[in-house]
Amino acid sequence: MFPRLVIDLEKLRHNGQMLCQMAAADGLDSLAFVTKVFCAMPPMVAALEELPNPYLADSRIENLANYPATGKQKILLRLPMPSQAEQVAAHADISFCSEPAALSALDRAAGDLGRRHKVVLMVDMGDLREGVFFRDRADLLALARQVEDAANLELYGMAFNVTCYGSVIPTQQTLDDFRALVRLVEEDVGRRLPFVSCGNSSSLYMLKQADFSGFNNLRLGESLLLGRETAYGADLPGLYQDVVILEAEVVESKVKPSYPIGKIGVNAFGQTVEYTDKGDRLRAIAAVGQQDIDCGGLTPLTPGMEVFGASSDHLLLDVTGCPVQVGDIIRFKVDYSAALRAFTSPYVEKICE
């Protein structure tokens, strides 16, 4: 069945092992591998089980609930909804929090289940997504005290996130400022926190050049699956960038003009597109589209092939220098956005090898 994602589990394990070694060399020995992008597919989660990282993490409580049996601690990354507090307490060992109301709901839910739930306080270091804003120290200390005073919660650690919304790249200054906040909370509660997470795949570029003392964790998703750091988008040496490949079938191959004929308005997505007239070209259509995947994140593995564009169901390709026939299977590398949408789509088959 096509389109389909082909996942190489051995390459996935290799990337995980290499990341564990890279991080441990800088004292970050408790990686959390993020399973969100591949919707926590059981074979892929199982492939990570043998690695030395003690945590698996996901943004969706539904994914954590569907994990295969694992000996690793499960982290909910997205801030918990109070309405899901019972599910969070039941299926996550640790959750990242920034709001008093959510903490109160988690405390009640954990008590009802007879469980003790670990909390990691999120700090916003300037990327302006989730977390207590780093300048609001009084709010951060109040949140830490609320967890300390709760009957069924444990203040387990602190973390920050960058790059995902505001495109802020972590620097040594980011690490230093966050370290100061960690020390502030630790001094207030009178003990060291066992979990201090200094970012995600965008922090990897600083390994071997930054001071990570006092930190012990990174949350890694894109680097695990695609073998690249996310601050500058560079491939990581020794890692595979083709753990996941998209395969799609050709349904048409014809010579046509490269510039649309007629009055031009917006496309099916309300976008105004600029077209380049390259004359007549051999154009192929593959049976995959924007409903299945982010077509802008596809790179053909066939030399000379180029993506023209896409509609909801069709991917348009310039194959003038590499003719294809109807029924041929074309293979593509995927970026993070393409992988995320394809793994989520019910119309894309997933095959693990």
How would you portray this structure in words?
By secondary structure, the chain is α/β, with parallel strands linked by helices. Helices cover 27% and strands 24% of the residues. It has helices at residues 9-24, 42-48, 61-65, 85-91, 100-113, 137-149, 172-189, 222-226, 336-344, and strands at residues 4-7, 32-34, 55-58, 73-76, 94-97, 117-124, 132-133, 153-160, 195-197, 219-220, 244-257, 280-286, 298-300, 306-310, 315-318, 329-334, 349-352. The strands form 2 sheets. Strands 2, 3, 4, 5, 6, 7, 8, 9 and 10 form a 9-stranded parallel β-sheet that branches. Strands 1, 11, 12, 13, 14, 15, 16 and 17 form an 8-stranded mixed β-sheet that branches. Helix 1 packs parallel to helix 2, helix 4 (85-91) crosses helix 5 (100-113) and helix 6 (137-149) crosses helix 7 (172-189).
